[in-house]
Write a structure and sequence with these properties.
single chain, mainly alpha
Length: 207
C-alpha cells in the first residue's frame, strides 16, 4: 500500500472497504512518528484538552497503549491495544494535540486525522464495538469541531454530530456487557470505562 491509497480507506469510514486490511494496518503503523513526538503530542492533548473530554486517561495512553503500539511490551490480559481501533485512537489524540501545541499545525493534525479514519475503518465499527471504538468516535467528533472544518460546510457540521451520536448509541450496546466488570475486574484496570459509557448514555450531547 502507498500513501496515495490511504484516502480510499479514510473516505470509506465508517464502513470497511474491500482489500487486505493487514497491509493497510502495516502501512498505518509505519506512519507512527518517533515515540518522543507521539508522547509530546499526547501530553499536549492531556494538558490542553482532557478537561473537555475525560473519557481517555493519561494512564490508559501513556502506560498501556503506547508501549504496546510501539512494540515495547506485550499487552496485559484483557487490554489488547494492538488493533486498528487502538491505532485510530492514538492518531486522533495526536491530531488534536497538533492543533493545540505551542506551534499549531493544521496540516499535521489533518494528516493524523485521515490516518485515524483509515485505521478505524479497518475493523467494523458496528460489530462488537469496544470502549476504544467509542472513545475514538468521540474524539473524532471533537477534532472535527476543533479543526474548524465543521464551519466550512453543513455536511461537515453534520459529521460532527453524527460521530458523537454514533458514539452515544454504541455506548448503549457496550453497556449491556458491563456486568463483565464484576466478573473480571481487570477489564477496567486503566480507566473506569463504565462511568464513561453511562455518562454518554444519560447526559445530553453537547459540543
Amino acid at each position: 500500500m502507498t500513501a496515495n491509497e490511504l484516502p480510499y480507506f479514510s473516505q470509506a469510514f465508517p464502513f470497511t472497504p474491500m482489500g487486505q486490511s493487514s497491509d493497510v494496518q502495516e502501512f498505518i503503523e509505519s506512519q507512527l512518528p518517533p515515540k518522543k513526538e507521539a508522547l509530546a503530542l499526547c501530553e499536549t492533548y492531556f494538558e490542553q484538552v482532557s478537561w473537555i473530554f475525560r473519557g481517555v486517561t493519561r494512564l490508559q495512553v501513556m502506560d498501556d497503549m503506547l508501549p504496546v503500539l510501539f512494540k515495547e511490551q506485550e499487552a496485559t490480559p484483557g487490554e489488547d491495544y494492538s488493533g486498528p481501533h487502538d491505532l485510530a485512537l492514538l492518531f486522533v489524540l495526536m491530531a488534536i494535540g497538533s492543533l493545540v501545541r505551542k506551534k499549531p499545525s493544521n496540516s499535521l493534525g489533518e494528516h493524523y486525522h485521515q490516518i485515524s479514519r483509515a485505521a478505524i475503518s479497518l475493523q467494523p465499527v458496528l460489530e462488537k464495538p469496544s470502549i476504544v471504538t467509542i472513545q475514538t468516535l468521540h474524539l473524532l467528533s471533537i477534532y472535527n469541531a476543533m479543526s474548524g472544518s465543521d464551519l466550512k460546510s453543513e455536511t461537515s457540521m453534520e459529521m460532527t454530530w453524527s460521530l458523537i451520536t454514533l458514539a452515544s448509541h454504541l455506548s448503549q450496546t457496550v453497556s449491556a456487557f458491563l456486568v463483565d466488570r464484576y466478573i473480571n475486574p481487570d477489564l477496567f484496570s486503566s480507566v473506569d470505562r463504565s462511568t464513561y459509557v453511562f455518562s454518554l448514555i444519560h447526559k445530553p450531547v453537547i459540543l
